[in-house]
Amino acid sequence: MWIKCFFFCLILNQVFGLDNHLVVQDSTSNQKFKSEFKSIQLIKNEKKRNKLLDEFVSNHVISGDLFTNYAYNLFNEDNLASIWLDECGKNVDNLLKTGDLSLVQQFAYGLYEQQIPFSEIERLFIQKIQQFPDDPNLIELLVSTYIFNGDWDKAWNQRRALDMRFKNEQGKRLLEFASYIFQSQQWSLASQIFDYLIKSYPNSNQRPRWQQMSIAAREQVVLKKENPDISEVKNLISAYQKLRSERGDNAISMSSYWQEAKLYAYQLKQLDSAVLVLNKGILLTQSDDNLQAQMKLELGDILTYEGKKYDALIQYAQVEKQV
Which of 224, 229, 238, 280 is deepest in the core (most CB within 10 A)? Predict the structure, then answer.
């Protein structure tokens, strides 16, 4: 669920701009904001000054002018950043009451876009978590803010802590997070998360998929190196073979034949082994036309490389008939 909210926030920002609670002020409105704010700070009577400041803050919360980098800097210059942060916290509370987590994520992302110091955004949600430790949504929000900032390890630490508290979910929300990390090409971390899922939920029917995703992520780590280590490549091949020996040939493990064959062909230069693996994979993927077609195309490419152009043309022709 949080992933959907996260993407909703990013798309909304790109297509429409963030205009809910967060507005871009022109120089005229900035000057007006500053003039009013500074005039309040000149009032010597503390009670009157605080009263007018409260009214000022309330008015600009409604208009959205308060939640900008310009406003934050003014408050910070006068050592009033804590007041600004408190208002952000109140706004988060109000948005959470709507039950729509995406609104809060949109607000947090807007602060990030306004170039509010990330430490302040982080502190905002940490304070909320300390205030309401049993609300998982607040941790989800902190995770999403870490992702905004590219703090992948911090996001993982919080997500893992949340999973440990809600074991009854069987890793469902953590799987969404792991898939997002994988799609973001954070391969090493993705493998680490899938390994955690495998260890934490050994009886899950998702275990074979997690195993394959973990191997796929490790494969990317190895292949991204300028000169992949041959022993690491062989370990990947062994991992794919072990996966099939443990889980059998099924819909989940079928693509491992393709991955294994590519490792043989392009990393170890063992073309005969690659052809054998692909032929077996093609034979076993009768029920998956798309995967089978991809394997046949791969086989055609390898046969072409071997100089067996006629055999390669047969594979290409079969794919044309399939699609």
Answer: 280
